[in-house]
Amino acid sequence: MKKYYHNSKTGEIGEYEEQDAGYSLKGLLYAYGDAITLGLKNIKEAKKWAKKWGYCPKCKSTSSGKNNKCFRCGTKIQFVK
Question: What is the residue-wise DSSP string for 32-73?
Answer without folding.
Answer: HGGGEEEEE-SHHHHHHHHHH-EEETTTTEEE--GGGB-TTT
